[in-house]
Specification:
This protein is of the alpha+beta class. It is built from four helices and 19 strands. Strands 12, 13, 15, 16, 17, 18 and 19 form a seven-stranded antiparallel β-sheet that branches. The chain has a five-stranded mixed β-sheet with strand order 4-10-9-6-7, with helices on one face.
């Protein structure tokens, strides 16, 4: 199966069809008969709302996101809350300045070297749980590593490999595999409804990687206000003369050159620092990184962003470093080999 990350009905139709097949099978096992209208109503009722991102300049008017687990749970007899399995997805950049990535992951081993590029070190890891019998109310999903807890409001917790290793009390840089014990819990307040354990093997890394991670910036910016961006190039290979670059509107991708147009540049003097700039009030600019772009609109003072690749703070849903805020600047550098650029 190939996952389509964008598109309209061409992508949604097969997903809805597959979800409908699962719902019909669950209904059959439960001795219930559903017609097509019943299936549609069930998927709509049990779906999760898709929130409008704070950086969007207009409401996001779409239907609910399908939640197959919730739909199936409404059909099966309610019993004890149980974690049926734990899944592992490791998002790793494969090219196109973060626009291309894979989540094809060995569920028992996290590869940090990833073919020598080292991108696995900065690719977020999502630990998800397939849960049955859960009550229909807000629950707390907790991933525990050596006493350190990461919380989420849905049955999937996302952390970075560095967070995982540090929580386990292990060094990030190593020449051999390490093992980390995880516990995933479903909590209703302080009561643990279900738990499951898993041991992950984490591969070696020298602590370096090819492409810079996305800087951190606010999701929205008031008209005329300065934009504050924090960047961190620690671990990025062959960095030389890095710059903060803001492009003109719609020209956010350096790979689209000669279309790419830089409206603002400033040298970066440190490996990790916070930089501020004030966009010209008479122009609309787009600032970008290897994983996101952000349009600052002079009239509204709002910033609209898209983020094909985001690392996140643990406990927040993804879908590195730029979620939930977007990114407003880019870094580029010249290397001893072919020129590389992280937008």
């Amino acid at each position: 199966m190939t996952t389509v990350l964008n598109g309209g009905t061409s992508a949604s139709a097969p997903m809805v069809a597959a979800a409908s097949a699962v719902v019909l099978q669950a209904a059959k096992l439960a001795g219930k008969r559903l017609d097509p209208a019943d299936v549609r109503r069930l998927l709509e009722k049990t779906g999760r709302p898709v929130a409008t991102p704070p950086q969007a300049d207009r409401p996001l008017n779409v239907g609910n996101q399908i939640d197959v687990t919730a739909a199936v749970n409404t059909l099966l007899p309610q019993g004890k809350t149980t974690i049926q399995r734990l899944s592992v997805a490791h998002r790793v950049t494969t090219g196109n300045l973060g626009g291309d990535f894979t989540e094809a992951t060995d569920p028992d081993r996290i590869d940090l070297q990833t073919g020598g590029a080292g991108e696995g070190l900065v690719g977020p890891i999502t630990i998800g749980a397939d849960i049955t019998g859960a009550p229909n109310r807000k629950l707390d999903y907790v991933l525990s590593v050596n006493g350190k807890q990461f919380h989420a409001d849905r049955p999937a917790v996302r952390i970075t490999p560095t967070q995982l290793l540090q929580a386990a009390g292990l060094p990030v840089v190593a020449t051999a595999d390490r093992t980390v014990d995880l516990t995933f819990e479903v909590r209703d307040g302080h009561k643990v409804l279900a738990s499951a354990k898993k041991t992950l093997t984490v591969g070696p890394t020298d602590g370096t990687f090819v492409e810079a991670t996305a800087p951190i910036a606010p999701a929205t910016v008031k008209l005329g206000a300065p934009v504050t961006v924090h960047y961190d190039l620690t671990g990025v290979r062959t960095v030389k003369s890095p710059q903060l670059v803001v492009s003109t509107v719609g020209h956010w991708n350096p790979l689209s050159a000669p279309i790419f147009s830089a409206a603002h540049k400033v040298p970066l003097t440190g490996t990790s620092a916070t930089s501020r700039f004030r966009p010209a009030p008479s122009t609309t600019v787009v600032a970008s990184t290897a994983s996101a772009s952000c349009r600052i609109r002079p009239r509204s003072g709002r910033c609209t962003a898209s983020s094909p690749r985001s690392a996140s703070t643990a406990g927040t849903p993804i879908t590195g470093r730029a979620h939930p805020p977007s990114t407003l600047d880019s870094t580029s550098w010249r290397s001893a080999g072919p020129r590389r650029r992280s937008r």
